[in-house]
Amino acid sequence: GLALYGVSPFGGADERLKPVMRLTSRVFGERVLPPHSPIGYGATFYTSKSTRVGLIACGYADGYPRRASTGSPIAVEGQRSRIIGRVSMDMITVELDASKEGLGCEVELWGDVVNINEVAEAAGTIAYELLCNIKRAKFTYSE
């Protein structure tokens, strides 16, 4: 039940419970964009200042929710950040810290740092749907 996702079946969060899945990817491209640069399909996001962005290899074809967009939480090397622009078929654009993360850094889409329920809420769905939609990902099992 919900207890598997860090939420007690009796309501509220329970820090003793661990997520059953971490969905991760890596930054494969990065750029610094000037102010007023459009990002993503339909140019739904424009940078407000000089912004360092990263491209990660995950999109709606992998099962990440297409309805997630600017502001949806992610974590880069364990530090919370956000998606900027729309989720595309094979990529997502994320905001990178000005001085730290870069090429090859791990991006957690949900798991230990980003609760899957936050992602589900940002996409207007539930955690179970997100878990059921994962495809094309390499599954690694651990105890």
Structure characterization notes:
There is one protein chain. It contains two helices and eight strands; from the N terminus they run ββββββββαα. It is mainly beta and 143 residues long. It has a six-stranded antiparallel beta sheet. A hairpin with a 2-residue loop joins β5 (73-76) and β6 (79-82). The radius of gyration is 15 Å and the shape is globular.
Key features?
143 residues, 6-stranded antiparallel β-sheet, two-stranded antiparallel ribbon, 8 strands, 27% strand, globular, disordered N terminus
Distance between the termini: 19 Å
- Which residues form runs of ≥5 with pLDDT under 50? 1-5
> How many helical elements?
2
Largest sheet, spatial ordering of strands: 6-5-8-1-4-7
How would a crystallographer describe the biggest sheet? 6 strands, antiparallel
DSSP strand count: 8
* Quaternary form: single chain
Compute the gyration radius: what is it? 15 Å
Mean pLDDT over the residues: 87
Helix content: under 10%
Element-by-element helix/strand order: EEEEEEEEHH
Which class of secondary structure composition applies to the elements?
mainly beta
* % residues in beta strands: 25-35%
Given the C-alpha coordinates, what overall shape results? globular
